[in-house]
Write a structure and sequence with these properties.
alpha/beta; Rossmann fold; 4-stranded parallel sheet; 5 helices; binds FE2/S2 (inorganic) cluster
């Protein structure tokens, strides 16, 4: 950031079979999406443990987007339902710190490059409005 507009740092967990493929499709189709995202490929959204999200925020991410296959489409049958349950728990936990708005769960299929562009742009703009996170300061109560 050089005195200009705040550019959020966003970590995206993307499942290999749907969301990562959808992001890849956006790339190969030259569909524009924000450059602020750092993609972390996981085999399934159900593999995203809350600790991984907290670690990303602690390490400097301003927001975390978890993406997976649509309900009913998970390649491991119920991984995305597990992701949903963990997400709700995580939102509760982060709510205690006033940070529940920093994390979002979205479904993006392998054929939804356009949807990925919308979802990621919307989340980046949402975090931009919230401003930088500075989690260490929040944790230390400053
Ligand atoms: S493989 Fe995509 S959410 Fe499970």
């Amino acid at each position: 950031m050089s005195g200009g507009e705040f550019e959020p740092r966003i970590v995206v967990f993307a499942c290999n079979w749907c969301s990562y493929a959808g992001i890849d499709l956006a790339g190969t189709s030259r569909i524009k999406y924000p450059h602020n995202v750092r993609i972390v490929k996981v085999m399934c959204s159900g593999r995203v443990h809350p600790e991984m999200v907290l670690k990303a925020l602690e390490e400097g991410a301003d927001g975390v987007l978890i993406t997976g296959c649509h309900p009913g489409d998970c390649h491991y049958i119920s991984g995305n339902y597990k992701a949903m349950r963990r997400y709700l728990l995580l939102k509760k936990l982060l709510g205690e710190l006033g940070l529940s708005d920093r994390v979002r769960l979205e479904w993006v299929s392998a054929s939804e490059g356009e949807r990925w562009a919308r979802v990621s742009s919307d989340f980046v703009e949402h975090i931009r409005k919230l401003g930088p996170l500075r989690l260490k300061e929040v944790m230390e109560g400053e």
